[in-house]
Amino acid sequence: MMPDIDYAVLFQALPSPYLILDPHLVILDANAAYQRVASLHRDQLLGRYIFDAFPDNPHDPDADGVRNLSASFARVLASGEPDTMALQRYDVRDPRRAGRFTEHWWSPVNTPVVDSQGEVTCIIHRAEDVTAFVRSRRFRNQGGGELTSREEGMEAELYARARKLQRLNEELRLAHGRERQVAVTLQEAMLHSPDLARHPNIAVRYLPAIGSLNVCGDWYDTVDLSDSRFAVAVGDVVGHGLEAATVMGMLRSALSAVSRTVTGPAQALEILGLYARSLDGAMATTAVTAMVDARSNLIMYSSAGHPPPVLLHRDGSYELLDKATDPPLGARVEHVLRPQAGITYEVGDTLVLYTDGLIERRGEDIDAGLTRLTDALATCADVSPETLADTLLEHLHLTAGSSDDIALVVIRL
Fold it and tell me: Are the C-beta atoms of 42 and 36 separated by less than 8 Å?
């Protein structure tokens, strides 16, 4: 007969440091080994958010322990799978000197506890303190002698951890490659515009955000309305990934359909806004659409919270199409027709529509991005739309991708 095991006593007796966290990363328990390495009593840990108990060292501008550990917890909660972290420096408060931190190195493993429905109920956080080993390694590398048997054992474990991480990274790389190929195919299908083939004077570009699997929420489209008139649009759904791409596809299809039946861009956006209010994830979407009439050399346009298109003249001067701007789709409750404006153009002028990833930079005013865009356009007013699109992206240093996806449409009028 198997003896009853007191798991609370067993947990406290484990030689490695362990924490138990709830899904909100609040500490539920800490064993004796963890209390020793953290220099904190169990009562000082229980019920606290882990990053309140263990913040980054404020004196180290390069401290990244909170960011890296938080990312590991997020992976565990999202996947329900254990996450083995690389060797991590994470300084802890010095209990003898208030406000001071001491250097510490850890080898962490985070393991989920999953219930019968597959939900993560808590996380077991094992944090092996390898500070002595790291310092000993530094000493040995400076000619200080041989490793002890304990240090050799720790080095072997860290080597095994590194090999495991290498294998997991390779599996992730292969999985990412497969998912990326599926995503690329999906994105190409969703952005396919049959009417675009009849317009050799239009160049389009799409650059996905870095790390987004090439599936995002930006779109472009062209719609032929008659022999002399066509509509062009760009839009931007907040977020990345399949969810944003799904919303994008629904809004793009709806705008394409409604543009063929209404009298102008403002009415098209008004109807699209009504649809957006019934669609999860579409409320903050921005879009701009323009109707080009080649007989009258007239552009009619309307914008739902979107950056203004640019009409580039042949002499390098330009005009911003910013006279008909309204809130994003779904942002207005009342049923009021959106504003619409018109502008004439000369044959040989160029109309440029884009999403905000082309001009926006973190911590920078949008006017600076618009100035950078118009300065770049002024230097290439006489080149082909294809060349202009490539030159523009190169000039703005976006050929390798950016933190936001980008849709770009260049039309030679």
Answer: no
DSSP structure string for 238-264 = EEEHHHHHHHHHHHHHHHHHHHTTSSS
Q: What is the DSSP letter of 13?
A: H
Six token digits for residue 86: 């690389």
Report d(CA 96, CA 150) in Å as an integer. Answer: 28
pTM check: above 0.90: no
Please report the sign of the dihedral spanned by the C-alpha atoms of residue 142, residue 146, residue 148, residue 149.
positive
What is the C-alpha radius of gyration for the chain, rounded to an integer number of angstroms?
A: 29
CA–CA–CA angle 239, 243, 249 (5° rounding): 95
Please tell me what DSSP assigns to residue 152: H
Q: Which residues pair with 187 in a beta bridge?
A: none
| Lowest mean pLDDT segment, chosen from 57-61, 289-293, 395-399, 404-408 | 395-399
Q: How far is the C-alpha of 312 from the C-alpha of 319, rounded, in Å?
A: 7
Reference 299, options 274, 333, 265; nearest CA is 265
Name the maximum alpha-carbon separation found in the chain.
Answer: 94
> What are the pLDDT digits (tens) for 70-87?
988 998 898 888 888 877
